[in-house]
Amino acid sequence: MHGRVKVKSTAQQEEEKRKEREKKLKVYLSARDAVFSKKSNGVLDEEALQLTQQLLSSNPDFATLWNFRREILLHLETVKEEEEMQKLYELELLFTESCLKVNPKSYGSWHHRGWVSSRLPRPDWPRELSLCDRCLSVDERNFHCWDYRRFVVKASGVPVSQELRFTDRLIGSNFSNYSSWHYRSTLLPLLQPGTPSPCRKPAHVSPTASPQTHGHRVCEEQLLKEYELVQNAFFTDPNDQSAWFYYRWLLGRAEREEMISCVYVSREGERVTVAFSKLVNAPAEGLVLVLDGQPQQVEWRSVHPLFRHSPVWLCELPPGSISDINNEHNLTVHWTEKHTHRDCALYTGRLESWCRDSATDQELFRSELSIEKTSVLQSELQSCGQLLELEPQNKWCLLTTILLMRALDPLGHERETLAHFQTLKEVDPMRSSYYSDLCSKFMIENTILKMEYAEVRVFSLSDKNLSTLCHLDQLLLVTHINLSSNQLLKLPPQFAMLHCLKVLEADNNAIENLEGLYQLPKLEDVSLRNNHISKLSTLEPLVSCPKLIRLDLRGNPITKTANIQAELAQLLPSVTDLLI
Amino acid sequence: MVSDQQNLLFTYYRSLNCYKGTQIKDVVIKPDAPNSLILDKHADYIAAYGSKKDDYEYTLSEYLRMSGIYWGLTVMDLMGQLDRMNQEEIIDFIKSCQHDCGGISASTGHDPHLLYTLSAVQILTLYDRVKAIDVDKVVDYVRGLQQEDGSFAGDKWGEIDTRFSFCAVATLALLGRLDAVDVGKAVEFVLSCMNFDGGFGCRPGSESHAGQIYCCTGFLSITGQLHQVNADLLGWWLCERQLPSGGLNGRPEKLPDVCYSWWVLAALKIIGRIHWIDKAKLRAFILACQDEETGGFADRPGDMVDPFHTLFGVAGLSLLGDEQIKPVNPVFCMPEDVLQRIGLHPDLLT
Ligand SMILES: [Zn+2]
């Protein structure tokens, strides 16, 4: 089905081909029918082995035939001596090898070979490993063969260090070998450090660990060696994506600790809002809320009905439990499963209170290398800078430079980062939306950092070319947000995490979806001038915001609809100040 | 440090002299390649495909017949032409392929397998005829293939692959019986196949591959666990599959292909990042893979067409918003109206 080029042929050629195919069909059908008849009659003999061999040689994807061979072999095991079986299975290996030579990507042949290897009375694993070597030297990307290699390595206990040297060799002969880089990423976390140098996290790899979730359990020492290898790769061929993908993984951050990052309590709303360091399904997490020493029966709900998993959850307290302003209250949320909790005190006379770790405390958006090793990142950045001078249009180098700058000092490098993003969009226009979204994310991170250094609850992101919103869980305490003059298309459901929001300005965007303006208990003032709101139904989420009194829709298509004033008054009766 | 950097520069200058550098593997779309959608021809091609049953090539593909029928029927339904296919004949065929163990085979006389069990259930769902087979037995069959570690074997011979995890939960979800297996463990296994690039492979440790990524994101959608995906990282890898021709490949340094265009595009849709590729260029690539003489789509411009690439070409154009085609669901690769009818709404990230 793949890679068969269509060739034009004459009527005579067609006729010849047709006749030939007819002949082949006859031979094929008679063999198939003979096999099927043996199969349905339970005839498990060596003639059946021959027939299936004949058919599989030309059609190795015919899975039922491999199954039948296994049935026959299992039967022969019960009647033959071990020595005879050893010979039979070795023939079977020769046969699969010949099938793999014709079709090295047949799932059936590879699976059968693995099965045979496991049944062989005296397996010869080194031979299997050398088969993989040969096969990978023909096609270094054949993932079936790589998977078979991993099977052989596991079955015969080949040490991790030996496999790592194998990838050294492959990468050394050709850097452009994504499969080898991938293999390294799975091997590194398994590697025991030679000296007891401090690893960043204990080598506590569970059987189901994957490099994605546990990748950064790589020793710093090994990490630095990897940087060097990757640099060699991209200085040899700056356009080869494999090494760059790998490098981005090396630069990635470790998992965040699982914790409650913020507890917010509102006296008037008699409501508790909790932010977690990751997405959770709170009702299933065994949370316990204790108010003044008494565990409370509460019902956790996510900020938006679309989310079963969310970083922000809330619950109502029993009526009257905290409403008296003359009382002080102490609240604790326990996340028992994770052995962590967070306290929050609501003092006399206060309307609200919170307790949290800020993004700056947690160093959320920076590198996790130890302080003395950040000098290494600095020199990585220098190398990228040199490469960029030689190859100013190289998108991989541009993007990596941005990532290094962010790992080192996100605010200090903001201006250069923006310039590099601009270049990226020009040299790689097919992915400009990706770069826009990534740049938006970084600008939001920077603004969060600046806001936290200034300890304010006002968040201004106007005129930053934002194409998307993210990190909204970090904005739980924000009361005023300005998103005007960006390229936003929507206020996504995640926007409903801004539980303290009173004033929203989002003028001069291309917003046509307001799903996220949902059950925001304090929202009073919404300005959406010059957007793309055209339907009354778009405004429906606002019905769930009880305090909304001011709404500015000037410059939206909806203002041109007949009778709009009356319809809006009916939909949003609380709005007294409507601008259209 | 300085000497290290001099070394690197030396490497670079040497490479300019003797190292050719990576040639991007891609195809060239000829100026006379098709650039408009010829739906009628595709429908004729599919309608005629099943009629040449004594053809050699057709016979050779018997081992995947059930999936072949699913591809043909689904693309016909997406084009609004399902009624041209012989429903009764197909239902009888499916019935003849269900085995005592409950599993369904690609064709009569073949052994049952999860791949063809899913295809059969998809076909029956298209026709709203699920009750034509023994549903309880299908559920038992799927349940029996789940392993200790949560993974699924494709059949009793024990091949493990995340494709089969997808087949298992997709089959059960279509039958409304997802609770029949240990979903928590199944999820744990699929997550253990997540790689450094955010993608997924066949088994733990296997390299990322667009087909597997489709299966695993589809699996996580059906099981309500998409929040476990690193969507920004995976989305970057996926949008880097787009080549200058506009087509998408399935892994780095590979050629573009219509079927990979579907796996990548559907996965991007599932994780809410479909806008990260250039839609107009992809559309042009897919259209160029049509055969104007015979109808149908090939893997690449100028190759032979087949029903598999015809489905994924048409489904890809549907995801790109072509209004001549019914909206397709990115998780099940079935018309949205069919899933609506059975009340199935798999999650998508926003
Ligand atoms: Zn293909």
Automatic annotation (TrEMBL), chain A:
It holds the Pfam family LRR_9. One of its GO terms (molecular function) is zinc ion binding. The keyword Transcription regulation does not apply. One of its GO terms (biological process) is prenylation. GO terms for cellular component: Rab-protein geranylgeranyltransferase complex. Signal peptide: none annotated. InterPro entries: Leu-rich_rpt (IPR001611), LRR_dom_sf (IPR032675), Prenyl_trans_a (IPR002088), RabGGT_asu_insert-dom_sf (IPR036254), RabGGT_asu_insert-domain (IPR009087). It is an enzyme of class 2 (transferase). It catalyses: geranylgeranyl diphosphate + L-cysteinyl-[protein] = S-geranylgeranyl-L-cysteinyl-[protein] + diphosphate. Residues 1-21 are annotated as: Disordered. Keywords: Leucine-rich repeat, Phosphoprotein, Prenyltransferase, Repeat, Transferase. Residues 260-359 form the Rab geranylgeranyltransferase alpha subunit insert-domain domain. Its EC number is 2.5.1.60. PANTHER family: GERANYLGERANYL TRANSFERASE TYPE-2 SUBUNIT ALPHA, PROTEIN FARNESYLTRANSFERASE ALPHA SUBUNIT/RAB GERANYLGERANYL TRANSFERASE ALPHA SUBUNIT. Belongs to the protein prenyltransferase subunit alpha family. Catalyzes the transfer of a geranylgeranyl moiety from geranylgeranyl diphosphate to both cysteines of Rab proteins with the C-terminal sequence -XXCC, -XCXC and -CCXX, such as RAB1A, RAB3A, RAB5A and RAB7A. Catalyzes the transfer of a geranyl-geranyl moiety from geranyl-geranyl pyrophosphate to cysteines occuring in specific C-terminal amino acid sequences. This is Geranylgeranyl transferase type-2 subunit alpha. It comes from Electrophorus electricus (Electric eel). The lineage of its organism: Eukaryota, Metazoa, Chordata, Craniata, Vertebrata.
UniProtKB/TrEMBL annotation, chain B:
This is Geranylgeranyl transferase type-2 subunit beta. Binds 1 zinc ion per subunit. Gene3D superfamilies: 1.50.10.20. Belongs to the protein prenyltransferase subunit beta family. Its EC number is 2.5.1.60. Its cofactor is Zn(2+). Keywords: Metal-binding, Phosphoprotein, Prenyltransferase, Repeat, Transferase, Zinc. It comes from Electrophorus electricus (Electric eel). It catalyses: geranylgeranyl diphosphate + L-cysteinyl-[protein] = S-geranylgeranyl-L-cysteinyl-[protein] + diphosphate. InterPro entries: PGGT1B-like, Prenyltrans, Ptb1, Terpenoid_cyclase/PrenylTrfase. GO terms for cellular component: Rab-protein geranylgeranyltransferase complex. It is an enzyme of class 2 (transferase). Catalyzes the transfer of a geranylgeranyl moiety from geranylgeranyl diphosphate to both cysteines of Rab proteins with the C-terminal sequence -XXCC, -XCXC and -CCXX, such as RAB1A, RAB3A, RAB5A and RAB7A.
